[in-house]
Structure formats: structure tokens, C-alpha cells
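Sorry, can you check?
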Amino acid sequence: MGGVVTARRPVALAAAVVLVLEAAGILLLNWILSIVVDRQQMSLAGLRPGAMSAGTWAGGAVFALFLLFCAAVLLRGALRDRAPGRLPRIALICCAVVHGVLGALAVGLVGWPAFGAAMVVLALLVLTLVAYGEARPAPDTAPGGAAA
């Protein structure tokens, strides 16, 4: 298990960089989609095109913020070389699940290269979660300075 321990910092840093790039890509994609919806005056079930455009932009912004939060958790963990706490760990698990689902959808909608990209991000997230394991409390020290 020594190889995983030595590789966990670079893997966490790589995952953080990939998530930041993915957040930028999600923002760009949703910005383009909102422009297309606005210019085409598309409507769905009677919704105004302006509302659909704003919803597209807001949804992309929320997802990008989630990815940036996960990247910040990974970066903090890599710089401190410590496992994330309970809530940040849950956020990383949710991010991994989202990438698994997106990968499954990407095969049919976009193709195998998109599936491969989603699986690389999923692998980085899972490897980071496994390498850091559970957050361990600091050992109690006795008054003499020795560990109890």
C-alpha cells in the first residue's frame, strides 16, 4: 500500500486541475446553449425562451460551482496531505457518482471518447478517496508527551 500513499498527492492535484477545467467547460457549454435557446426562440411546454435561457445558465453555474468546491477540497487535501472531513468526502463521492452516470450517458449520446474522459475523472476521484481513506483523529498524548 506504500505506492498508493506516495502517489496520493499528485493524483489529488491532478483531479483538482481536471475538475477546474471541467467546470470551465461546463460554464462555456451552458453559456453557448443559453445563447442558442435565446436566438432560436425555443420553448418547451409553454416556457418563455428567456426563462429557459436563464435556467440553462443558472444550472451550469450551480454545477460548475459544485465542481469548483470539489476541486478545492481535493487541493486542500493534497496540500495538507490529509483526508477530507465527512461532508467534503460526501461531496467527492457525489461527484464520483455524477461522473459515473455522465459516463454511462455519454456512450450513447456523444461517443466513446467522452465516456473515456468521464471515466478518467471518475478514476482520479475514486483513487483519491481510496488513497486517503478515512480521516483519522490525532492520537491522544499523555502529560509526559508520550502517546497513550
